[in-house]
């Protein structure tokens, strides 16, 4: 859901010349600025890595839920998969900005009682140490989907009424999918300062170039 929303904002932006998406299955989207690679195994990228050259940014929105998953599998598909992809794109794009979507509650100290929070924190920490020109960790909470997109998660379809309530009683817990996409584009254009973006920071970054 997040990846589709970010792609949507990139395709609408005059600041984005080209968008490359890497999927396991065809997205069904066609756009003059859009290129797509279908690749099933993100642990083995040698077959496509030459096609990853020449990009200013990577917006890494791939993720899995820890619900019903063993600790070993969650570590593999969160930490190991992400780091493998990040190392590959960095090898070919030394001036790249890397944006990683983790989530609200991620623990940078890696000491949380929650396994997912420790693993996400470890993943964030490693990306920040890798040597990207810029790296930003996005920690959204509740996300209001962009109307009309294909991959809105079922729960979000029925909980949209919560968004205006949360904006009033807990503004630091909710943002729109458009704000996430706009924020990623904006921090690529200009250093935001903070490397870990909680919800309030995502909103600030989304407004950086607003008139």
Description:
It is a single chain. By secondary structure, the chain is α/β, with parallel strands linked by helices. The protein is 39% helix and 15% strand. The protein has 7 helices and 8 strands. The strands form 3 sheets. Strands 3-4-5-8 form a 4-stranded parallel beta sheet, with helices on both faces. α1 crosses α6 (177-189), α2 (71-92) packs parallel to α3 and α6 (177-189) crosses α7 (199-206). The chain is globular, with a radius of gyration of 17 Å. The two termini are 28 Å apart. The model has no long low-confidence stretch (mean pLDDT 91).
Number of DSSP E strands: 8
Total of DSSP H or I helical runs spanning 4+ residues: 7
Distance between the termini: 28 Å
Helix content: 25-40%
Helix vs. strand class:
alpha/beta
Shape: globular
Strand order of the largest sheet: 3-4-5-8
- Report low-confidence residues grouped into runs of 5 or more: none
| Share of β-strand residues | 15-25%
| Rg estimate, integer Å | 17 Å
Order of helices and strands: HEEEHEHEEHHEHEH
List keywords for this structure.
4-stranded parallel beta sheet; alpha/beta; 211 residues; two-stranded parallel sheet
């Amino acid at each position: 859901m997040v990846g589709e929303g970010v792609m949507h904002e990139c395709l609408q932006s005059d600041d984005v010349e080209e968008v490359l998406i890497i999927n396991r299955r065809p997205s069904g989207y066609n756009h003059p600025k859009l290129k797509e690679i279908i690749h099933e195994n993100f642990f083995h990228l040698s077959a496509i890595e030459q096609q990853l050259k020449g990009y200013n940014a990577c917006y890494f929105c791939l993720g899995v839920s820890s619900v019903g998953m063993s600790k070993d599998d969650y570590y593999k598909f969160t930490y190991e998969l992400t780091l493998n992809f990040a190392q590959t794109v960095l090898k070919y794009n030394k001036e790249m900005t890397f944006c990683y979507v983790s989530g609200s509650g991620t623990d940078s100290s890696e000491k949380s009682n929650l396994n997912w929070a420790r693993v996400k924190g470890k993943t964030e920490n490693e990306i920040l140490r890798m040597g990207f020109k810029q790296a930003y960790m996005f920690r959204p909470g509740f996300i209001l989907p962009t109307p009309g997109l294909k991959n809105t998660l079922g729960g979000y379809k029925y909980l949209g009424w919560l968004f205006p309530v949360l904006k009033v009683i807990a503004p630091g817990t909710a943002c729109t999918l458009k704000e996430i996409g706009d924020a990623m584009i904006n921090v690529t254009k200009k250093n935001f300062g903070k490397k870990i973006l909680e919800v309030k920071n995502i909103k600030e970054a989304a407004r950086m170039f607003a008139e």
